[in-house]
Amino acid sequence: MTLVIGLVTGVLFGAFLQQAEVIRFERQVGAMRLLDMTIFKFMLTTIVVGSIGIYLLSDLGVVSFAPRALSLGLQIVGGLLFGIGWAIIGFCPGTSIGALAEGRYHVVWPILGMLVGGIVFALLYPAIQTYLAPIGAFGSVSVQGLLGISHWFVIAALAVGAFFLFRFFERKGL
After folding, report:
1. Distance separating alpha carbons of residues 97 and 77, to the nearest angstrom
2. 76-113, pLDDT tens digit by residue?
3. Quick count: other Cβ atoms within 10 Å of Cβ 3?
4. What is d(CA 21, CA 173) in angstroms, rounded to the nearest whole number?
5. DSSP state, residue 21
6. Distance CA 168, CA 5 (A)
7. DSSP strand pairing (69-71 vs 137-140)
8. Taking the domains of the chain in order of start, what are their residue ranges?
9. What is the pLDDT of residue 166?
10. How far apart are CA 174 and CA 165, in angstroms?
11. Any residues with CB less than 8 A from the CB of 22 and at least 6 apart, and which?
12. pTM of the predicted model, to two decimals?
């Protein structure tokens, strides 16, 4: 049943990506040039909705949730690799799968890159955990934990901030 739920939610997420037009090459390049905030708005909406959902399910005892340990070494290196790949190819891994589903076969290259990158990561995992993960390791941290407040206040602030940011983007035509 877990696989069926994963498949259904994956298909729905792909449909949302397609409907929001975030799998369009023009949107990807526009985002990298800070001229089109469609992808940013989609991602921020996903973060707000996901935060509400996961913390609600956690508060109800349906799921167990704890933030992962923060490692600046992992975040910086991973972010740079992801960003460089996105800039070179023009698609991130998720949007390239969506573009392939739309019949744009040129995205087979970023998909192959994602698969090769996954294999390389798996092979290097022990070394990454030994040498890179300890750099800037802070353990499990969260905004609500650092501030000592309820996660619902943080989520509310995030939602309000997103609302005003979206209004700003819309007024600027972004």
Report:
1. 23
2. 999 999 888 888 888 887 788 888 888 888 889 888 98
3. 7
4. 16
5. T
6. 36
7. antiparallel
8. 2-171
9. 94
10. 11
11. 28, 38, 39, 42, 95, 98
12. 0.79
